[in-house]
């Protein structure tokens, strides 16, 4: 059994004020660096007038790792930025909460609207840490079994059999009906080889898997 890992159940946010400054902590699951960066861009676009949008994430690093997010041997990329706040006052405290809570495949952005009172490095560190902790609490921490992704492409004649197998096993998938039918599948790592074998058997080897 591949090791389970801790992550967040869903997107969430938490907001509060400290001496006039408003802090909003946003959190989301993310299985790749690209997904984490896209979430950061989304929050920055939502709050272009914010004084700071401080990001931090812990996600699988590189293409090889992202195909099996959360796997026991996967290298994690840990990233944070102070986004103009004093060095070490915001991004690092935000990331430290994720490390201390042992959550991964997760991205946070803490938005701050300055309220006119300087909080100092210690005050900022406490506020940014609190924003991440409260967002984590709002999202809920869950244990996730590592998954991998693959694409199965077949002709229309075989698509019903492939879809039936995917539905019967309860895996997550998206189907794209074009010249051929492509199924993008997300499956627990421990079940992936068996599922690929079933698809090959059901289509007499006609399925293309990548």
Automatic annotation (TrEMBL):
Pfam families in alphabetical order: DUF1949, Impact_N
InterPro entries: EFG_III/V (IPR035647), Impact (IPR023582), Impact_N (IPR001498), Impact_N_sf (IPR036956), Ribosomal_Su5_D2-typ_SF (IPR020568), UPF0029_Impact_C (IPR015269)
Any one GO biological process: regulation of translational initiation
Gene3D superfamilies for the chain: 3.30.70.240, Impact, N-terminal domain
GO cellular component, one term: cytoplasm
Domain annotation UPF0029: ranges: 153-206
All residue ranges annotated as the Impact N-terminal domain in the record: 20-136
Similarity remark: Belongs to the IMPACT family.
Name of the protein described by the UniProt record: DUF1949 domain-containing protein
Provenance organism: Haloferax marinum
């Amino acid at each position: 059994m591949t090791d389970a890992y801790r992550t967040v159940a869903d997107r969430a946010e938490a907001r509060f004020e400290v001496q006039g400054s408003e802090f909003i902590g946003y959190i989301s699951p993310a299985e790749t660096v690209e997904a984490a960066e896209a979430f950061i861009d989304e929050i920055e676009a939502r709050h272009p007038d914010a004084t700071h949008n401080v990001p931090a994430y812990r996600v699988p690093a590189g293409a090889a790792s992202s195909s099996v997010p959360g796997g026991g041997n996967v290298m994690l990329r840990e990233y944070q930025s102070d986004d103009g706040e004093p060095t070490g006052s915001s991004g690092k405290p935000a990331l430290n909460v994720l490390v201390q809570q042992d959550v991964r495949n997760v991205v946070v952005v803490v938005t701050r609207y300055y309220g006119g009172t300087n909080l100092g490095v210690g005050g900022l560190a406490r506020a940014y840490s609190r924003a991440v902790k409260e967002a984590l609490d709002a999202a809920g921490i869950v244990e996730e079994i590592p998954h991998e992704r693959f694409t199965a492409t077949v002709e229309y004649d075989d698509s019903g059999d492939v879809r039936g197998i995917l539905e019967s096993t309860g895996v997550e998938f998206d189907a794209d009906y074009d010249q051929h039918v492509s199924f993008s599948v997300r499956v627990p790592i421990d079940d992936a080889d068996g599922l690929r074998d079933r698809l090959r058997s059901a289509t007499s080897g006609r399925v293309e898997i990548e």
